[in-house]
Design goal:
The protein is α/β, with parallel strands linked by helices. The chain folds into six domains: 99 residues, 3-Layer(aba) Sandwich (MutS, DNA mismatch repair protein, domain I); 130 residues, MutS, connector domain (Nucleotidyltransferase, domain 5, 2-Layer Sandwich), CATH 3.30.420.110; 144 residues, MutS, DNA mismatch repair protein, Chain A, domain 3 (Orthogonal Bundle), CATH 1.10.1420.10; 73 residues, MutS, DNA mismatch repair protein, Chain A, domain 3; 247 residues, P-loop containing nucleotide triphosphate hydrolases (Rossmann fold), CATH 3.40.50; 47 residues. 46% of the residues lie in helices and 18% in strands. The strands form five sheets. A seven-stranded mixed beta sheet has the order 13-23-24-25-21-26-27, with helices on both faces. Strands 3-4-2-1-5-6 form a six-stranded mixed beta sheet, with helices on both faces. Strands 11-10-7-8-9-12 form a six-stranded mixed beta sheet. Helix 6 packs across helix 7, helix 12 runs antiparallel to helix 14 and helix 13 packs across helix 14.
Length: 860
């Protein structure tokens, strides 16, 4: 217990699994925790008079119990016996050999095949943050720097399992990024740039970080250094597979804030049973492809050439079905190359996994030849970047048995004819039976005892057994060892010699197999970078084959991508909803045109449930799919590259953060209006509905006007309940009205889900309430109230008011008979805004201000 307590003080915030004989034991508070999480029995024992809680499990069940502890968010320190108990007379030496935390895990039962397990660190600067992501199971190491919004978005995209933050910023982190993340707080001294730089350059064996293109990311370097520091703290020092670090180049990818990622339900949904976009488009066959697809979806491209090259591969594969089928067949044979080679680096690979690695590399050979033989440049490039690793495959084939076991202690790992010494020892072990049979025959003949038997037990090894009836025939040189009721057991010199030889052989075979396997693993480390490169190439190919399958199964088309700012979609569909429709029901497709010249903002009115939100979302998803390199669900699509997608959809309360629906809505909308660009796509759904009607209409109107008048002229889809906004089409040239058509049959409403030009006049909210099964008396009362309200607040009155306000705002300044105002009016009208610099504009404004203040003084 003294030894246990000493080790436990070094790891106060970890649950300590303490190896005692054949068990891993936990004591005290750890035992209480472990018994709850694992459902194992909690007992007590007296240690030096103290009553201590105790819970344990057999050491060979570690892989069953460890994942449960880590998934419950525990940090687990594994304390092993560091010497053979047989060789020591005192207490066995013990020490922590590994600290497993949610973000630092190599165990397959903890990891998800298609998902990265990122450990992340966040560094707080004055105005910027640094962030780093590292997956120890694959060797991927990414770094970035940005403002609060960018960091929040990256946390959403990469969903790290554990985030490291300085203790000094504990409250800041929770206030900025919320409490739903799994965090661990480290001492502040670790977050220093010089220490981080030294940690990184020592690890990569370089003199500076310029070669990685990250030397200017001061906060990013601190975050990256912190991640590596944490790995050494958790006893992970064999990290050859982490051989490079990449900057996440935000400027190369489409910007989507976290609201957009949530609203479009790309990989998560608020609704536990909802189908996400990823669920629909993921047709990958390998774990590497599954992980890469998530990265592509998180970081859609803006570079037209790169997007087109992905589209061209899909076009080629659709036209060459045989090549496509063969590629998918071979990709299916692949194991997880990245994680297998990472296990080689960390020395945690077992014999069966080495065979799996060899078989996966063999599947790459036909993939490479198929890719090289194609007449598509991008496919050829992928093929040429794949290395067959002939030497590595040959070496494994020569050294290991094809049916090698998981556990090396089981034996039969090294192939025959590889080691002469091993073959001799094995021969000795197998020929032992013949040797015993011959000895038995010889002794039977010599003594004349017909019922002789040679056997062995754990107490005194091999023995000869004689029935009592033949006791008198036993030779003198035999030594009696045991007397039974009906027989006697004897040993001889010859038997003893033989036993020593056999047992020695068993032990030596085990040592030799372990030694040879360890040498192989060290030799394989030369191939880490090559295998990682292969994994990247085959993951890309897997994603593109997945897109091909998606396009063929769901009738997607190749979009035309150009650098205009137009979006033109013919018969577009929502990729997720069309898969969810009941059998036999077809999705109603819609055309859509958006540009910055004459149809910049589309106002979509229509009743609830008519499909307004679906049209908004499908537009964003079509753009997104096109820019990750996929075909799109439409009859045709011409898309100018989009650089930012903003959505503000529905009302989602953020009550846990103390914000109302309306506050959340306004926060998100403000974030959109402050970040507009010429290539932005903005989707606004029911803005302003979180407040009173007149408030809501006023806000919605002014937001629309702002978007129309903003120099960026961002393409916008605005779905709204407020029919009053249809009046904006008259005043603003680039705002167009559309409605989602419906058909009224007596008391019923049919939703046609088709987008048609012009505004709609009714809400049909009461019809929807009826469809939902609202009691009849509620429905009829609602109808009465509606009629009364319509009489007293006719929408024409409201619209007239809005138009009056609009003209008042424009006229109020110039409708006074005042020579000074006339002068200012002339000044403003004759300004050439296009050639005016910001400084000149400010000076002009100052001049006008002076004129006005002079006038004020004169009149007073």
């Amino acid at each position: 217990m003294k030894q246990y307590n000493t080790i436990k003080t070094k790891y106060p915030d970890a649950l300590l699994l303490f190896r005692v004989g054949d068990f891993y034991e936990t004591f005290g508070a750890d035992a209480v925790k472990a018994s709850k999480i694992l459902g194992i029995i909690l007992t007590h024992r007296n240690n030096g008079g103290d009553r201590t809680e105790l819970a344990g499990f057999p050491h060979h069940s570690l892989n069953t119990y460890l994942p449960k502890l880590v998934k419950a968010g525990e940090r687990v320190a594994i304390c092993d016996q560091l010497e053979d108990p047989k060789l020591t007379k005192t207490i066995v030496k013990r020490g922590v050999t590994e600290l497993v935390t949610p973000g630092v895990a190599m165990n397959d039962d903890i990891l998800e095949a298609n998902t990265n397990n990122f450990l992340c660190a966040v560094q707080f600067g004055r105005s910027l943050f640094g962030i780093a992501f590292l997956d120890i199971s694959t060797g991927e190491f990414l770094v970035s720097e940005g403002n609060e919004e960018q960091i929040d978005k990256l946390l959403q995209n990469f969903t790290p399992s554990e985030i490291l933050v300085s203790k000094n910023h504990k409250t800041d982190f929770e206030a900025t990024f919320g409490k739903e993340h799994h965090t661990f707080f480290l001492e502040d001294w670790i977050f220093q740039e010089d220490y981080a730089s030294e940690t990184l350059t020592t690890h990569f064996k370089t003199t500076s970080l310029k070669g990685f293109g990250i030397s200017h990311l001061h906060h990013g370097i601190i975050a990256s250094g912190t991640v590596l520091h944490y790995l050494s703290e958790t006893q992970h020092r064999r990290l050859q597979h982490i051989n490079t670090i990449h900057r996440i180049a935000e400027e190369d990818h489409v910007w989507m804030d976290r609201f957009t990622i949530n609203n479009l339900e790309l990989y998560h949904s608020y609704n536990p049973n909802a189908v996400t976009l990823l669920d629909v488009i993921d047709k990958t066959m390998s774990p590497m492809g599954g992980r890469m697809l998530k990265r592509w979806l998180a970081l859609p491209l803006k570079n037209i050439e790169r997007i087109r090259s992905r589209h061209q591969v899909i076009t080629y594969l659709i036209g060459h079905d045989e090549v496509f089928q063969k590629l998918q067949h071979w990709i299916k044979q692949l194991g997880d190359l990245e994680r297998l080679i990472s296990k080689v680096a960390t020395g945690k690979i077992n014999p069966r996994e080495v065979i799996q690695l060899k078989n996966s590399l063999e599947a790459l050979v036909p993939i490479k030849s198929l890719a090289i033989a194609s007449d598509n440049t991008s496919l050829k490039n992928i093929g040429e970047s794949i290395d067959n690793c002939d030497l590595l495959r040959e070496k494994i084939k020569e050294m290991l048995q094809e049916e090698a076991p998981v556990n090396i202690l089981k034996g039969s790992v090294i192939a025959e004819n590889y080691s002469e010494e091993l073959d001799e020892l094995r021969a000795l072990r197998f020929s032992g039976k013949d040797h015993l049979d011959k000895m038995l025959q010889r002794e039977t003949e010599r003594t004349g005892i017909t019922s002789l038997k040679i056997a062995s037990n754990n107490v005194f090894g091999y023995y000869i057994e004689v029935r009592n009836t033949h006791k008198d025939k036993v030779p003198e040189e035999w030594i009696r060892k045991q007397t039974l009721v009906s027989a006697e057991r004897y040993i001889t010199e010859e038997l003893k010699e033989y036993e020593t030889k056999i047992l020695g052989a068993e032990e030596r075979i085990m040592q030799l197999e372990q030694q040879l396997f360890a040498q192989l693993v060290v030799w394989m480390q030369e191939y880490i970078a090559t295998v990682q490169q292969n994994a990247i190439q085959v993951a890309q190919l897997d994603c593109l084959c997945g897109f091909t399958q998606l396009a063929e199964e769901n009738n997607y088309v190749a979009p035309v991508i150009n650098d205009s700012t137009e979006i033109e979609i013919k018969n577009g569909r929502h990729p997720v909803i069309e898969k969810q429709l009941p059998l036999g029901e077809a999705y109603v497709p819609n055309d859509l045109i958006l540009n910055r010249e004459n149809q910049q903002i589309i106002m979509i009115t229509g009743p609830n449930m008519s499909g307004k939100s679906a049209i908004l979302r499908q537009t964003a998803l079509i753009v997104l799919l096109a820019q990750i390199g996929s075909f799109v669900p439409a009859e045709a699509a011409t898309l100018g590259v989009v650089d930012k997608i903003f959505t503000r959809v529905g009302a989602s309360d953020n009550i846990s953060m103390g914000e109302s629906t309306f506050m959340v809505e306004m926060n998100e909308t403000a974030s959109i209006l402050n970040n507009l660009s010429e290539r932005s796509l903005v989707l606004l759904d029911e803005i302003g509905r979180g407040t009173s009607t007149y408030d809501g209409i006023s806000i919605a109107w002014s937001i629309s006007e702002y978007l129309h008048e903003h120099p960026a002229r961002a393409k916008t889809l605005f779905a709204t309940h407020y029919h009053e906004l249809n009046e904006m089409e008259v005043t603003f040239e680039r705002i167009k009205n559309y409605n989602v058509s419906i058909k009224e049959l007596q008391d019923k409403v049919l939703f046609l889900r088709k987008l048609a030009p012009g505004g709609s006049q009714h809400s049909f909210g009461i019809h929807v309430a009826k469809m939902a099964g609202m009691p009849q008396q509620v429905i009829s009362k609602a109808n009465k109230i509606l009629k009364k309200l319509e009489k007293s607040h006719s929408s024409e009155e409201l619209t007239d008011k809005l138009q009056t306000v609009q003209s008042d705002m424009q006229l109020s300044f110039f409708n006074l008979d005042d020579p000074l105002l006339e002068q200012i009016k002339e000044e403003i009208l004759h300004l050439d805004i296009d050639t005016l610099t910001p400084v000149e504009a400010l000076m002009k404004l100052n001049e006008i201000k002076r004129l006005l203040s002079k006038n004020k003084k004169a009149s007073s």
